[in-house]
Amino acid sequence: MAVIFPRWTNHLPTVIAAVVPLALVAVVGAIWYWFSPWFTDVGYQPEQPVAFSHRLHAGEMGMDCRYCHNTVERAAQAAVPPAATCMNCHKVVKADSDKLALVRDSFENGTAIEWARVHLLPDHAYFDHSAHLAAGVGCNTCHGRIDQMEVVTQDQPLSMSWCLDCHRDPGPNLRPRDQVTNMAWDEDPDTADYTRKTDEQGHPMDVSGTRTLQPPNHCSGCHR
Amino acid sequence: MSRLKIANQKREWRSLDELAGQPDQEIAVLESPQGAKEWEQTEGLSRRGFMGAAGTTVAASAALLSGCIRKEAEFIVPLSERPEDRIPGTPLEYNTVASLGGTVLGLRVSSMDGRPTKVEGNPNHPNSNGAASVFAQASIMGLYDPDRTHVPHKGAEAATWADVDAWAKGAISGDGDGTAILLDDSNSPTVARLLGELLKKHSRLRVFRHDAVGGNARAGAALVGLTGHTQAFSLENAKVILSADADFLGTDGDVVRNNRGYARSRAVTETKADISRLYAVEPGFSNTGAMADNRLRLRGSAIGGFLAAVATKVFGALGSTPAGSKDVMVALKADASGNEAWVDAVAKDLVANQGKSAVLVGSGQPAWVHGLGMLMNAALGNTGKTVKLVASDVLPGLPGLDELVAVIKARGVKTLVMLGGNPALTAPAELDFKALMGSVATTVHLSDRLDETSRLATMHVPVSHYLESWGDHVASDGTMGIQQPLIAPLFGTISAPQLLGRLLGSELSGFQLVQETTKGLAGGTAFGTAWRRWLHEGVVYGPAEGVVPLAAGSVAPVAAPAAAIEDESAEGEPVEGDVDGGEAPAEEVAPVAVATWDFSKLAAAARAAGAAGSGLEISFQLDPRVYDGRFANVAWLQELPCPVSKLSWDNAALVSPATAGKLSIERGDLVDLTVDGRTVRAATFLVPGITDDVVVLTLGHGRGEVGGRFCGGGFNAWPAKGASWFAAVEVKKTGENHKLVTTQEHGRLDPKLNTPVGVYQPKRRPMVMETTATEYDAKPHFARHEPLFALKSMWEQPNVTGGHQWGMVIDLNNCTGCNACTVACNAENNVLVVGKDRVAKGREMHWLRLDRYFTGAEDNPEVVFQPIGCAQCETAPCEQVCPVGATSHSPEGLNDMAYNRCIGTRYCANNCPFKVRRFNYFNFANENHDANELLRMQMNPNVTVRFRGVIEKCTYCVQRISAAKVAAKRSTNDGIVTDGTITPACAQTCPAEAITFGDINDPNSMVSKKKASVRNYALLADLNIHPRTSFLAKIRNPNPELA
């Protein structure tokens, strides 16, 4: 009887059995890794028109976040400050710096500075800063150590599943309201002693201990 | 729940076709008809092409993703200096005042990052009481109207502002002889003051007013010696209301104020319906007619005679007539022919309720009928109780358009300045104003577009919208408010005060001109403080108490010029007391003593009144959507179904089925309507309940491209309309046809279905529970009934207790079907317009629709309205069939919709018993908005703009709920939203307070209390759906004598 398949084909099933699962795992893994917002979004660091350093202002000089982002406690948007806020200091400090030319121009002529948006949520997701601050979520929980960033970089994926992780179990991300702008809270050894309040069922309560936190997990909580 | 038969419930029907047993099957059955084929035929991408392109895109995006292409870059562009109180993305509200469709409304307007997006009523203003009319809701689109002119025009040619300035400098020379100014229906103290100054400089300048709609009422007041007075009604104090062709709940006059008053006069307790009674006498079928307890169909020309008959009876019963009115009694041509029972019953009711009744006369009735109405109100002792007589007109006694025409013909006019209005369209046809305009050397028209008048004028000056210019307005009750702009003029346009300022050679801005007018009103307070308070409150307060009506400061200076004008015109005598007489605020204006009235002219006018016509008669009426045509280019309004006919995108010659039979015309037949030799063409539409032998045609449609890109539809009635609003008409069939679109069959709640296994006709359920006051007193719990059939739930009843549980109650006893809620919803929720052809296919996107049912006999039915939006069923049938979980329940009882999950199967719409889920067949947003930057500026950024292929529906304004919840979390310890904090757009604008929203888990909330009412019932409750929106049953109060 003539041999139709050469001898080496005897190994083919074995090879297929070994390679195909590997390939499948590789494809799934590749998509899981490279298509994930952890890869596509985290680390996004667009170039800004003005070389503003959060490390210098918020870190070394220790300015409170809310000096510039002053609507963060009252409104959905934290609001990028107008040039007038910069000029409160820079009329005096480094008044002639070349790096500040654009800011001075904006202040004097009313022209707008086009800051590149780093944290970009989809249009159908409605996020509200004030609600999160009221619950005691710190800035760095979502934005990372801004005080250590020369140029602002996206620290967390800001994906829906990432949001829901915390909405389903907010406890670990809560802190006293007066500590929300404390960038070093998580690393602070003292915070280990901070006991988070819970109600009788063990649900996390807000820091004042008066209301059980029920972050929305339903569609209209964020989508309208 | 007691076991009650609902046998006495009247049969409801939606259309004549249905009554005849042949409802429009396709529309009735198919909630969302198929549309894939049609898409292939539209221009651009074919379906096949799309699939190809989509495939490529997927491949491309995969490739790009691996190359780490991020989302499109976005920029944050902060202001260089942020104004105080301005928070990006958070709306700010400002109070202002506007003159909209024959009434002055106090408004509260939201500004989103500097652009006005939403209009609401100002609670401080007594004419709006926090509510807004359909016109007010739609007026925001006037600001973003893509067809507004941006620069002045000379003829059809664009000109420059320098041309206007050059003209204005030398426009009026010397004593002003040969110059005339024509005003519109607005009532602005600043305009009056500037005219006064102009008259001081140019003593022979002539001022006229063309109020195409309100002219009869003005003339009526003059007939009883009360020139410049308006009637402001407080119907909440009324027990008996007689409407003589007055659609005071729909289009005519102070509709917001009157809706509120009327609704309050209908307040029902749990055991007793001690409510007002509304008699409506009308040729057509208006909202007021629909609400009437007793409605008499009467041709327009017979209404004067009818009212005269009632008056004669009333005065006979009173035993005395007001001093000086004897002549009137003699002159009145009472004509009760065939309606004697009605006249007797109405007169008896009016006399029995002296001081608690009100007689309202429609704009379309001649002046003497208005005068008679005022006389009746005074004689019945209503003045000061249900009606105030306020000297509100800041320019009383101005001669009208007819006198301008006479002057032009007699002496010629060299320069005619028209401040607003559109006289070339709205002038009575017999005046032939268009032709006369040609004989005036210079005609200047201030308007927002190249309309009929501007096209004929030698110069067109574009006017600013009320949201972009300073002004002031005095309402009919004397309340004065300042029109505060929210945005700088988009196109550098000017306002009427500014144009007058330029004629005066003044360099002052609109702001300065208005401040100048109000200087004297601050009283003891520093002007700056007073001014800021006026703007903040939206109402100008007087020095001592409450609201300052026109009187104290603002009007006095105007008196002189006004009188001067009158002397000039030699028509209308100088009026005493009406200008200076209003020292007290409007609330305290004493009833005008009958002694100061002067009835001699009324007697003469009544004597000259013609008899009721016989034969076919046309009745011109204001359109419930576009008023007199001024709102014609608002697509929201064009698409809005008319309250009774439910016509969308068109008006039509409305006739009763009997009349249609007599003329052998059918729906859609184009007919030529000839009035006095003037012919207009219109399609016919059959509406049961229209007076027989009457053709009703609304004004303001069919203006073609002159009005703007959205005004093509319908038929222009103005060319046929003379001075009278009704006239004998000849109807001639043309043999042609016109497709009319009506939504009356859309969204049936009890469709008869042709299924493969047979015809399914559900048991007839009552939609609008209704009873009479007498029956209610006997059986207050009539609305409660056992389910028609018991269904067993396949699902466990979800646990929807705890926390907030949102619910809504709609009081059908209050709802007058005015449509304001639908337009408010359009504005708040970015609901898009789809166009006539798609409405014909049942694809209108309205989240909230007003179902209209006829009940009773075909020749004279009653009408009930029922607003239907998503009822947020607790066991929502839509959720159970969604294959992708795009719609699901929130713990607070909302039926959430996640647009980005929706794949457009439309299963949910199919399964929705209320038929409230709307599907985006096309990318309507792109169609309407992307091409047009202006229209997009109105969009509410807090609501997603939906894309093609997704379902959408009412959310109870979840964006407002979220905002309130976040605010509560921010500012309270418990995070609980207090009752009344959240008001959905429909409830906020409702002038009749018919909609209540709140937390049904809180027993003390308004909504819980209403849900506990005996009148509360759930619609389609038999289906086990547990809807969160429930209704309160309607009570009518018909006169048993007329039964």
Topology:
The complex is a heterodimer of chains A (224) and B (1043).
Chain A: H1 12-34, H2 37-40, H3 54-60, H4 65-68, H5 83-90, H6 101-109, E1 115-116, H7 129-135, H8 139-143, H9 160-168
Helix pairs in contact in A: 5-6
Chain B: E1 12-13, H1 16-19, H2 25-29, H3 36-41, H4 47-66, E2 75-76, E3 92-100, E4 103-112, E5 115-121, H5 134-138, H6 140-143, E6 153-154, E7 157-158, H7 161-170, E8 179-183, H8 189-201, E9 206-209, H9 215-223, E10 230-233, E11 240-244, H10 255-264, E12 277-282, H11 287-291, E13 294-297, H12 300-318, H13 326-331, H14 340-352, E14 357-361, H15 367-379, E15 387-390, H16 401-410, E16 415-419, H17 423-426, H18 433-437, E17 442-447, H19 452-456, E18 459-462, E19 471-474, E20 480-483, H20 496-503, H21 510-518, H22 527-537, H23 551-569, H24 600-608, E21 617-621, H25 635-639, E22 647-648, E23 653-655, H26 657-663, E24 669-675, E25 678-686, E26 694-698, E27 726-728, E28 730-737, E29 741-742, E30 753-755, E31 758-760, E32 770-772, H27 773-778, E33 806-811, H28 820-829, H29 836-840, E34 849-855, E35 862-868, H30 877-881, E36 887-889, E37 895-897, H31 907-911, E38 918-919, H32 924-930, H33 933-936, E39 951-952, H34 958-971, H35 985-989, E40 995-999, H36 1006-1011, E41 1016-1017, E42 1029-1032, E43 1034-1036
Helix pairs in contact in B: 8-20, 8-23, 9-15, 12-14, 12-15, 15-24
